[in-house]
């Protein structure tokens, strides 16, 4: 446990907990709006974006951020304008499209391979001070958005028609939600890796929604599941010398399995 | 009295070929209840959505508070009870959370007591029965103290006692507080007993006027005999 005294461990823990809380809160609304696949899709689109940025010689973080934000908003616009195109199918296309761009670029110019994979499967324990500050900044933006738009998000999730009649600009709120979600996903991909970023967005939210008695309770429970999974996952990974991302995701899945077993299988 | 809703020569089509509504005209005045009745597929819900600006007319004009429905929605409070709200079973919002999402941070306990919602305020909306949901939706539509109330099947699934309670509430809103109610219902008896004017619709307007002169048209439209 002496390892917890190290700066890099404390920084990793702080980055992980902040991202877990932010991702879980945004994730509750994404899951309720049937956009849970957004995390996986955008993180794979980011994979393509990172590869493209290396090929073009551009800053990977800025390029991937712009690339993902544009892509996410295009998908949202398409879903809004043509309600006949299923959102989950579009997100699945973004998922494969992003991965295919990366595969093509890696095949053509394999000299970027190590850098690209390092960027995408980066470990929470090598988070720098800059990563911590970026995480704090992005989380602050996301939390301010959720606080300001909480009632409007609740209403559009309940009924878009009622929200529209009450003067809520549904399309604008949807675009803002997807923009904030994209921002959190892209930056968490860089900081904690592809697997952990999409898992933090979905698994705690899903577990919380199965047990919570209210929307506010679901937000609180999701944040707690996310944050505690990061804390205990990191401790276990340090004790047993295992990869932290895998252990954290494993813990979140375990919590979900317990919730399902207790709620539906009456174990 | 001031006209709150004005509909002139309104036509609408979902596919651009078959008209769902054709040359519909009517008005709803301040302090008035206008009830819309008609058979299934007659365009009742479509008409409400056009009045609310949720659909765009093919031709004709809709004015709400003397302006476009979109502008009226931003400038005035319009209460709306849709025909159906079926949130996802995992949507965990309570009745209280839904009421505050429409009406503001604080719950209106006078309204909650009036609608007998006290024991449902902390229950999930998705756990309520059909009738309880209608009452909760009515509470939601009233929580912003609306100038205009648009109701699609407000009594669906309600027992007699609850229907009477809703009727008293709507009468109080229109007669004492001079609000306007536009409602669609399959419950012809309810509409004829409460509405100041009745609109009989079957894609076109078959009758628009006081309820006591409506039964003949209703007999033609539905093939049933009505006694007022």
Describe this structure in words.
- The complex is a heterodimer of chains A (267) and B (228).
- Chain A is mainly alpha-helical.
- Chain A is built from eleven helices and no strands.
- Chain B is globular.
- In chain B, α3 (95-103) packs parallel to α5.
- Chain B is built from eight helices and nine strands.
- Helices cover 33% and strands 26% of the residues of chain B.
- The A-B interface holds A 31-32, 34, 151-152, 154-155, 157-159, 161-162, 164-167, 209-210, 212-218 and B 49, 52, 54, 73-74, 77-78, 80, 82, 85, 87-88, 90-94, 97-98, 100-102, 122, 124-125, 140, 144, 150.
Considering the chains and any ligands shown, give keywords for the structure.
heterodimer; A: 267 residues; mainly alpha; ABC transporter involved in vitamin B12 uptake, BtuC; B: 228 residues; 3-stranded antiparallel sheet; 9 strands; 33% helix
Summarize the structure.
The complex is a heterodimer of chains A (267) and B (228). By secondary structure, chain A is mainly α.
Please report the number of helical segments of chain A.
11
H/E order of the elements of chain B? EEEHEHEHHHEHEHEEH
Structural class of chain B: alpha/beta
According to DSSP, the number of beta strands of chain B is 9
End-to-end CA span of chain A: 34 Å
Topology:
The complex is a heterodimer of chains A (267) and B (228).
Chain A: H1 7-32, H2 38-56, H3 60-81, H4 87-108, H5 113-120, H6 129-158, H7 160-165, H8 170-192, H9 194-211, H10 215-240, H11 244-263
Helix pairs in contact in A: 1-6, 1-8, 1-9, 1-10, 2-3, 2-4, 2-8, 2-9, 3-4, 3-8, 6-8, 8-9, 9-10, 9-11, 10-11
Chain B: E1 3-13, E2 19-29, E3 33-37, H1 44-51, E4 59-64, H2 69-75, E5 78-81, H3 95-103, H4 109-114, H5 130-142, E6 148-152, H6 160-176, E7 180-184, H7 188-194, E8 197-202, E9 204-209, H8 215-222
